[in-house]
Amino acid sequence: MPEVIALIAAAGKGTRLGAEVPKAFVMLRGRSLVERSILAMVTSGVVDRIIVLLSADMMSFAQDLFSRRGLIDSRGYCQGIPVHLVCGGGERADSVWEGLKAIGSHKKGSVVLIHDAARALTPPGLIARVARAVAQGHKAVIPVLPVTDTIKEVGEESGTAFVRSTPDRSRLRAVQTPQGFDLAELYAANLAYFAQETPDFIATDDASLMEWHGQRVSCVKGDPMAFKVTTPIDMTLAEHIVDEAEPTIFDVPDTLKKDADD
């Protein structure tokens, strides 16, 4: 298995959740969303190092929180996997680019995983599945789920919305994270993207950027547990899931259980 580096995007404000702190730092049954995402990466058994992308105004808070939790010191909670904090940019794509530049030198064939901190209950097995698909030679890999709702393409005319078309949902998929890439290829795609003086394309995710750069994007099976906590309803669902499954999600060391309950 080549080197695997995880970039966790945690710089967003998450206004739709209506919390007093940025979404990544909202507590879910005693542990923040970003902490849970970090621990999922650790538990996957395939990640060698982790970079958390943060807004500048949350850097000091995160350093303090992670230190108390044993995420960036020698207490072993991350099983020796280094966790680094990097200041992101104004948009998600800017943050990922900062993360890629922070990685520095890397071995040929290294794998990078881009993950949303808000997908805090992503199963470690899904993370491993994506990483292994990239290691097997796929330059870009995304986890997907079938779309169950009927989807409409809509337009607007004179202030009234109307249906333009109804895509065949059998060909549609909902995309999750982590998205996995050959590190050198993703770096090259970002380099070309940010070199544009007049952008002719806005990347909505890293896979779309790879498509724009001419790379084929492969798909692996996603998981319903990798849903994104975006709204209060999502948080309620996440709380119910954790209430049922917390003892089996993460093995929390006894020395940290008090911190987890603070």
From TrEMBL:
The keyword Nucleotidyltransferase applies. The record marks 169, 228 as: Positions MEP for the nucleophilic attack. Pfam families: IspD. Pathway: Isoprenoid biosynthesis; isopentenyl diphosphate biosynthesis via DXP pathway; isopentenyl diphosphate from 1-deoxy-D-xylulose 5-phosphate: step 2/6. GO terms for biological process: isopentenyl diphosphate biosynthetic process, methylerythritol 4-phosphate pathway. Coiled coil: none annotated. Keywords: Isoprene biosynthesis, Nucleotidyltransferase, Transferase. Gene3D superfamilies: Spore Coat Polysaccharide Biosynthesis Protein SpsA, Chain A (3.90.550.10). It catalyses: 2-C-methyl-D-erythritol 4-phosphate + CTP + H(+) = 4-CDP-2-C-methyl-D-erythritol + diphosphate. Its EC number is 2.7.7.60. It is an enzyme of class 2 (transferase). Belongs to the IspD/TarI cytidylyltransferase family. IspD subfamily. PANTHER family: 2-C-METHYL-D-ERYTHRITOL 4-PHOSPHATE CYTIDYLYLTRANSFERASE, CHLOROPLASTIC (PTHR32125). Catalyzes the formation of 4-diphosphocytidyl-2-C-methyl-D-erythritol from CTP and 2-C-methyl-D-erythritol 4-phosphate (MEP). This is 2-C-methyl-D-erythritol 4-phosphate cytidylyltransferase. It comes from Corynebacterium spheniscorum.
